[in-house]
Amino acid sequence: xxxxxxxxxxxxxxxxxxxxxxxxxxxAKYESRVSSAEVVYEEEKRVRKVEVILTVDRGExxxxxxxxxxxxxxxxxxxxxxxxxxxxxxxQALQHKGPRISEGATID
Length: 108
What we know:
Distance between the termini: 50 Å
Structural class: alpha+beta
Number of domains: 1
Largest sheet: 4 strands, mixed
CATH superfamily: Ribosome hibernation promotion factor-like
Shape: elongated
Number of strands: 4
CATH topology: Double Stranded RNA Binding Domain
Radius of gyration: 18 Å
Strand order of the largest sheet: 1-2-3-4
CATH class: Alpha Beta
Strand content: 25-35%
Oligomer: single chain
Order of helices and strands: EHEEEHH
């Protein structure tokens, strides 16, 4: 997965960049078709905001935003939201399949 990090009106420490890459690569277990992620860090007064846009092959992009007092807390909130969104999408895709012949249907 290609991860692009941008900063608006702030500087991002290397430790936060590394943590960003680690957290976002873990999201691949929920959706294997994620090809890239765009992360935007923004600072306004005392509020730090993080926005992540995941590009999914053959699907709609997934967007999540969060804010907090520090970039780490905002990043954790965004990753949690993205994992919930991706899990929900995966579950919806699996639930639309019919029951297996061995499980649901009985032949008499």
